[in-house]
């Protein structure tokens, strides 16, 4: 069975820890891991725009000894409606792995269903699991571990980051609280799955509409844009309900004094986060952005070792 990484709970708690431990080794010895030397090519396909994901996968695949093949879907037949499964069948005879940023989760499930090589979710509307691996690595670097720490995510509870914090944070044994307007709550099925995972890891998950309660005593504060890619037409509607969930200097006073602040970026200062917070001493967003590189290198190495013994 080919192993894929389509959502955060595709890695068990033990496996997530293995990937993050490998990522820490890659931080310590950045150019000492070259499992793709051969070289193997990895396709990285974008249906949506990207800065961090594109750069970190391209650099990371090269650092592992492989060749990144970056594809803008709009310039491929996939973008003109060629069936996803046919694309998978063409790719899996030539590349070692497929990384894809797309819209609906069912699209990446179709790709994985037809691919004999690992498929990695580089963001869908529902999940952003590579980002959460980088975020957990950042928490480990700044806090020493993840288990038992309280992570408060504020903003759009129904988006990809919220869902991935719930699943990935629960897998890491964290106490995850999502604070959002009631009309932007997490998908109940994702929340239920996160509750189940937390039951096994000693973590916990919860949703609230009370931003101050979520932040109270938190070790990690996280937020994201209120207008995700594909929601641009709703931008004017997606402001007023979210204002109480902005990560402001005032709200930060309720967190632990040594709390760290995460944002997957791109950030909108003065909207979901104050400039004084994201550019302030508690922000670790640049470490977080760099950690996309290390976490994804570890993930690719881990997946390929399981699929090909490489
Ligand atoms: N955080 C993140 O995925 O950034 P990009 O959209 O720039 O890839
Ligand atoms: N929720 C955001 C994340 C961007 C990295 C989006 O999907 O646009």
TrEMBL record:
<dbReference type="GO" id="GO:0005737">
    <property type="term" value="C:cytoplasm"/>
</dbReference>
<feature type="binding site">
    <location>
        <begin position="128"/>
        <end position="131"/>
    </location>
    <ligand>
        <name>carbamoyl phosphate</name>
    </ligand>
</feature>
<keyword id="KW-0808">Transferase</keyword>
<feature type="binding site">
    <location>
        <position position="224"/>
    </location>
    <ligand>
        <name>L-ornithine</name>
    </ligand>
</feature>
<dbReference type="GO" id="GO:0042450">
    <property type="term" value="P:L-arginine biosynthetic process via ornithine"/>
</dbReference>
<feature type="binding site">
    <location>
        <begin position="264"/>
        <end position="265"/>
    </location>
    <ligand>
        <name>carbamoyl phosphate</name>
    </ligand>
</feature>
<keyword id="KW-0963">Cytoplasm</keyword>
<comment type="pathway">
    <text>Amino-acid biosynthesis; L-arginine biosynthesis; L-arginine from L-ornithine and carbamoyl phosphate: step 1/3.</text>
</comment>
<dbReference type="GO" id="GO:0016597">
    <property type="term" value="F:amino acid binding"/>
</dbReference>
<feature type="domain" description="Aspartate/ornithine carbamoyltransferase Asp/Orn-binding">
    <location>
        <begin position="148"/>
        <end position="303"/>
    </location>
</feature>
<dbReference type="InterPro" id="IPR006132">
    <property type="entry name" value="Asp/Orn_carbamoyltranf_P-bd"/>
</dbReference>
<feature type="binding site">
    <location>
        <position position="160"/>
    </location>
    <ligand>
        <name>L-ornithine</name>
    </ligand>
</feature>
<dbReference type="GO" id="GO:0019240">
    <property type="term" value="P:citrulline biosynthetic process"/>
</dbReference>
<feature type="binding site">
    <location>
        <position position="77"/>
    </location>
    <ligand>
        <name>carbamoyl phosphate</name>
    </ligand>
</feature>
<feature type="binding site">
    <location>
        <position position="292"/>
    </location>
    <ligand>
        <name>carbamoyl phosphate</name>
    </ligand>
</feature>
<dbReference type="InterPro" id="IPR006130">
    <property type="entry name" value="Asp/Orn_carbamoylTrfase"/>
</dbReference>
<feature type="binding site">
    <location>
        <begin position="228"/>
        <end position="229"/>
    </location>
    <ligand>
        <name>L-ornithine</name>
    </ligand>
</feature>
<dbReference type="InterPro" id="IPR006131">
    <property type="entry name" value="Asp_carbamoyltransf_Asp/Orn-bd"/>
</dbReference>
<dbReference type="Pfam" id="PF02729">
    <property type="entry name" value="OTCace_N"/>
</dbReference>
<dbReference type="InterPro" id="IPR036901">
    <property type="entry name" value="Asp/Orn_carbamoylTrfase_sf"/>
</dbReference>
<feature type="binding site">
    <location>
        <begin position="50"/>
        <end position="53"/>
    </location>
    <ligand>
        <name>carbamoyl phosphate</name>
    </ligand>
</feature>
<dbReference type="InterPro" id="IPR002292">
    <property type="entry name" value="Orn/put_carbamltrans"/>
</dbReference>
<dbReference type="GO" id="GO:0004585">
    <property type="term" value="F:ornithine carbamoyltransferase activity"/>
</dbReference>
<comment type="similarity">
    <text>Belongs to the aspartate/ornithine carbamoyltransferase superfamily. OTCase family.</text>
</comment>
<feature type="binding site">
    <location>
        <position position="101"/>
    </location>
    <ligand>
        <name>carbamoyl phosphate</name>
    </ligand>
</feature>
<dbReference type="InterPro" id="IPR024904">
    <property type="entry name" value="OTCase_ArgI"/>
</dbReference>
<feature type="domain" description="Aspartate/ornithine carbamoyltransferase carbamoyl-P binding">
    <location>
        <begin position="3"/>
        <end position="141"/>
    </location>
</feature>
<protein>
    <recommendedName>
        <fullName>Ornithine carbamoyltransferase</fullName>
        <ecNumber>2.1.3.3</ecNumber>
    </recommendedName>
</protein>
<dbReference type="Pfam" id="PF00185">
    <property type="entry name" value="OTCace"/>
</dbReference>
């Amino acid at each position: 069975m080919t192993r894929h990484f389509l959502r955060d709970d595709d890695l068990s708690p033990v496996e997530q820890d293995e990937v993050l431990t490998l990522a820490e080794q890659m931080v310590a010895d950045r150019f000492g891991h070259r499992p793709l030397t051969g070289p193997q090519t990895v396709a990285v396909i974008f249906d949506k725009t990207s800065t961090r994901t594109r750069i970190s996968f391209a650099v990371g695949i090269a650092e592992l000894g492989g060749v990144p093949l970056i594809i803008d879907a709009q310039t491929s037949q996939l973008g003109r409606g060629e069936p996803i499964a046919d694309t998978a069948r063409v790719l899996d005879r030539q590349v070692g792995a497929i990384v894809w940023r797309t819209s609906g989760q069912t699209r990446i499930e179709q790709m994985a269903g037809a691919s004999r090589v690992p498929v990695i979710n580089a963001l869908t509307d529902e999940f952003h699991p590579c980002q959460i691996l980088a975020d957990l690595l950042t928490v480990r670097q700044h806090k020493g571990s993840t288990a038992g720490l309280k992570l408060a995510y504020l903003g759009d509870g129904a988006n990809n980051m919220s869902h991935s914090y719930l699943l990935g944070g629960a897998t890491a044994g964290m106490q995850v609280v999502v604070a959002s307007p009631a009309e932007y709550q997490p998908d109940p099925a994702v929340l239920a799955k996160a509750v189940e995972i937390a039951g096994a890891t000693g973590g916990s998950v919860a949703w609230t509409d009370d931003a101050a309660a979520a932040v109270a005593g938190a070790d990690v504060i996280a937020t994201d844009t209120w207008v995700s890619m594909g929601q641009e037409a709703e931008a004017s509607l997606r402001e007023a309900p979210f204002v109480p969930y902005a990560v402001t200097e005032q709200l930060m006073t309720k967190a632990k004094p040594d709390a760290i602040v995460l944002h997957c970026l791109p950030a909108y200062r003065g909207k979901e986060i104050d400039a004084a917070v994201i550019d302030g001493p508690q922000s670790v967003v640049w470490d977080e952005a760099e950690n996309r590189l290390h976490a994804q290198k570890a993930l690719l190495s881990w997946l390929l070792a399981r699929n090909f013994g490489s």
